[in-house]
């Protein structure tokens, strides 16, 4: 059974007729050029953007689910998160417990440890570097222990070590009978860590399937206007523009 089923999803002038699914244990990467519709798709799934079509979670229509239950089941990390207040790192991560109405200290501690931010618990989040803050905002989502974790470019601001570390963490998170959908620009990382990819082009699905099915010369030419060097057999896989 699908964890997430998406049918005929459309948002006026942004995305159209998207059909897609996510199965338990899976990490799905959403790729595509700037403006292709990746954030729009994730915002619909995250319940922050109205849409036409259907999104089902475990065979239940998302729009008929009470807000609190949706928030417990689906955790959303937007592309850029900022705090308007002078919150500490611990405050931010504890916000992830809001859907549960508690401040489960063990969940907060574990999320901080998993994202390697434990040393900064009492620091003000807006005084951390961009990449450090990105890990704190991810910890907030992890603390809620959602069944489906959505992350919009979670590694865009991370150094090379933390890109690999966080993608490994997210994949491990999905494996535990949960699911992860993330958007990502680095195609080599996408091929290395994602089970399946969905390539968006001008708001529509150009290709969806295994990295080998999606990352073809033809698809990359259409979606990105590049000729690419593609070597999916090498360890790790390499996809770079020629
Ligand atoms: N708030 C908005 N109102 C209207 N149109 C929007 C809005 N946000 C984005 N769009 C448009 O929707 C389309 C898809 O944008 P989206 O942000 O989903 O792309 P993306 O694939 O995430 O791009 P990027 O790689 O640059 O983050 C674009 O044409 C964009 O201009």
TrEMBL record:
<dbReference type="GO" id="GO:0005524">
    <property type="term" value="F:ATP binding"/>
</dbReference>
<dbReference type="InterPro" id="IPR027417">
    <property type="entry name" value="P-loop_NTPase"/>
</dbReference>
<keyword id="KW-0547">Nucleotide-binding</keyword>
<dbReference type="InterPro" id="IPR003593">
    <property type="entry name" value="AAA+_ATPase"/>
</dbReference>
<keyword id="KW-0067">ATP-binding</keyword>
<dbReference type="InterPro" id="IPR003439">
    <property type="entry name" value="ABC_transporter-like_ATP-bd"/>
</dbReference>
<feature type="domain" description="ABC transporter">
    <location>
        <begin position="6"/>
        <end position="227"/>
    </location>
</feature>
<protein>
    <submittedName>
        <fullName>ABC transporter ATP-binding protein</fullName>
    </submittedName>
</protein>
<dbReference type="InterPro" id="IPR017871">
    <property type="entry name" value="ABC_transporter-like_CS"/>
</dbReference>
<comment type="function">
    <text>Part of the ABC transporter complex HmuTUV involved in hemin import. Responsible for energy coupling to the transport system.</text>
</comment>
<dbReference type="Pfam" id="PF00005">
    <property type="entry name" value="ABC_tran"/>
</dbReference>
<keyword id="KW-1278">Translocase</keyword>
<dbReference type="GO" id="GO:0016887">
    <property type="term" value="F:ATP hydrolysis activity"/>
</dbReference>
<keyword id="KW-0813">Transport</keyword>
